Amino acid sequence: MFTDFDGVLHSARGSNGRMLPFEWVTILADELAAFTDVGVCVHSSWREQFADDYLRDFLGPLASRFAGAVPRGAKAAAIAQFLHAQPRIVDALVLDDEPDEVRNCGAVILPCDPQLGISCSQTRRRLRAWLRGTAAPMS
Q1: pLDDT tier at 22 (50, 70, 90 boundaries)?
Q2: Secondary structure element (H or E) that encloses residue 77, with its range
Q3: Cβ proximity of 123 and 131 under 8 Å
Q4: What's the rounded Cα separation, in Å, for the pair 100 and 119?
Q5: pLDDT 10s digits, 92-121
Q6: Cα torsion for 44, 22, 16, 59, to the nearest 10°?
Q7: Which domains does the chain show, CATH number per domain?
Q8: Do the beta carbons of residue 92 and residue 115 sit within 8 Å?
Q9: CA-CA-CA-CA torsion for 22, 126, 120, 98, nearest 10 degrees?
Q10: How far apart are CA 104 and CA 16, in angstroms?
Q11: Beta-strand pair 93-96/66-69
């Protein structure tokens, strides 16, 4: 699973690096609890400002699932590059509040409301459907 930070794990209001702690990270951790094979990869613009150790720490209860960050550059291309380098990944989901930035990345896209992120009940329902393997295409 690829996640943005702003607009997913906390409201998109505010500037990068100034929105800690991530108010909704525990919601995502709870949703993933039963799915131990799901890793979390960061594609947020924060990856260009912070080292992996910091990104992992920002994930709090999801830190043990941290699978790295995508390379620098445009998000869609960086996600595609990460997936190409990791052929063991058979299904991928992208959580992002700006879906146009990740179109054609090679993964299913789950758009998030920038003010509600993963706290939105509809977004969580769609996430659960994807996790159970019953999701209709979202991108």
Answers
A1: confident
A2: helix 75-85
A3: no
A4: 21
A5: 999 999 999 999 999 999 999 999 999 999
A6: -40
A7: 2-131 (3.40.50)
A8: no
A9: 70
A10: 25
A11: unpaired
